[in-house]
Amino acid sequence: MTEEQPGAAPEPAAADRSGQGVVAAFGQSLKTLRVRAKMEREELGRRLGYSASTIASFEQGRRIPPPRVIDSSDEVLDAGGLLKLWKEQMEKAQYPAFFQGMAQLEKRAIELLAYDTLVVNGLLQTEEYGRTMMGNRRPPLDAETIEQRVTARMARQDIFDRRPEPLLSFLMCESVLRRQFGGRAVLRGQLEQLLLVGQRRNVELQVMPLDCAENAGVDGPFTVITTEDGKRFVYAEAQGASVLETDPKPAVLAAARYGIIRSQALTPRESMEFIEKLLGEL
pTM value? Predict the structure, then answer.
């Protein structure tokens, strides 16, 4: 977890520069070890299952290799674990600075409660939906950053297969399910994904209908996470910035507020039927 103060996110520019420095330093280490092994980029790429241009992107710090590639590179180059030492820092660097603390918390969650009002939660997104979201950013992200962040977002979905299973609750406004980001086909695939995830025993999906007269979530989206040591955190983000509350009181109040919103929304069964109805309309 990053060194945040209660109620504060790290200063974005400084954190971003730090992340870029880590990626660049890893790339230089990779290149140094490859040259020491007297191996061309084409050969290393062949052994790792990548093109020479992708290896160049890794070495030049323009692309972050996934953990398995770091492990394989360490073995192929006989690095003795030197490259593997970078894995944790590289994992943090693949996320935007404002999300790095939250990404670490997700890995320790035994319960996650997420209320969303704008877009489908990242843990539920399809690859196509996620890529559309990244492509809509302004100022625009470059193609390599988009692919890097989509890959990182998909990797976060390992939370569904973790053992022991965390308890996961997702509550979203009906408007989230009606926005056709990327077109009808992308939304159709996303709704189908929600129906599949909603069948998991440790997951509950609920929808807050637009015609609901009462909604305690008027302050916007937020996520409450409880970790294995019993600590609770509340996270919220907007406009490329975030707040991660480490003070217990706001987190307890947010969890209570989430419970009220759940009681006002459609039940999980009603929500699945509602999503099926929306899917049928596409």
Answer: 0.78
